[in-house]
Automatic annotation (TrEMBL):
Transmembrane segments: none annotated. The lineage of its organism: Bacteria, Bacillati, Actinomycetota, Actinomycetes, Streptosporangiales. GO terms for cellular component: plasma membrane. Residues 45-147 form the DUF218 domain. It comes from the Bacteria. This is YdcF family protein. CDD domains: YdcF-like. Pfam families: DUF218. PANTHER family: DUF218 DOMAIN-CONTAINING PROTEIN (PTHR30336:SF20), INNER MEMBRANE PROTEIN, PROBABLE PERMEASE (PTHR30336).
Length: 219
């Protein structure tokens, strides 16, 4: 079984990255929710919770599959997210599914086209993702859809509880490290707007890379 306890040797650096990727936005009503597909079903859970709180009238779940999600979500991430949200009481007619996106840029681009095809105009969106994907999702969306007002949100679990919910501490650390690298390199590649990175965040990232958490790095 994968380890689910965060080792003390890495705790400070992992907590530094965890806090950095949280945009600390205040959740408030928006025109739509965009739930970004991944291995984390908590995205759909939290989207449903916010829907029931009246934070948005409509949801788009977006995502096909990555190698890490095919086994868990064989029909595609967005399809399974939709089914989970319906189980949690969200009406089917409030949900649109975008089933083809395989990266965050496509999540945004394909969702924008889907809404346009349905004649749905929006000026604001709640972008719901894994906790450590918030900053990358924000910087990608602002690059591709700059006029859209964006509120980033994630299921509000403390770090240790989140690791237990995923069931694999190495996966969480590797994903945190990978998303941090993408904040550094994607703006130069035209995929995202630049984001400030405090020196302590960069140092924590480098230490975790040196410790071997490299499986999600872009080569």
């Amino acid at each position: 079984m994968p380890e689910v306890t965060l080792p003390d040797a890495y705790r400070a650096d992992v907590e530094t990255l965890w806090d950095y990727h949280d945009m600390h936005h205040t959740i408030r009503p928006t025109d739509i929710a965009i739930g970004l597909g991944s291995h984390d079903l908590g995205v759909a859970t939290f989207t449903a919770e916010l829907y029931h709180e009246g934070m948005f009238p409509r949801i788009v779940f977006t995502g096909a599959n990555a190698p890490t999600t095919i086994e868990r979500f064989p029909r595609g991430e967005a399809v399974h997210y939709r089914l989970h949200a319906i189980e949690l009481g969200v009406p089917d007619e409030a949900i649109l599914v975008e089933p083809k996106a395989t990266n965050t840029g496509q999540n945004i681009e394909f969702t924008r086209k889907l809404l346009a095809d349905h004649g749905i105009e929006v000026s604001s969106a709640t972008l719901i993702s894994r906790p450590y994907q918030q900053r990358r999702a924000y910087s990608t969306a602002k690059k591709l859809w700059p006029a859209l007002e964006i509120i980033c949100a994630s299921r509000p679990l403390p770090l240790d509880e989140y690791i237990v919910s995923i069931g694999d501490v190495d996966r969480v650390i590797n994903m945190l490290v990978g998303d941090t690298q993408r904040i550094l390199i994607y703006p130069a590649q035209g995929f995202a707007i630049p984001q400030d990175m405090p020196p302590e965040v960069g140092a924590a990232y480098r230490r975790l890379v040196k410790a071997g958490f490299t499986s999600r790095l872009v080569r």
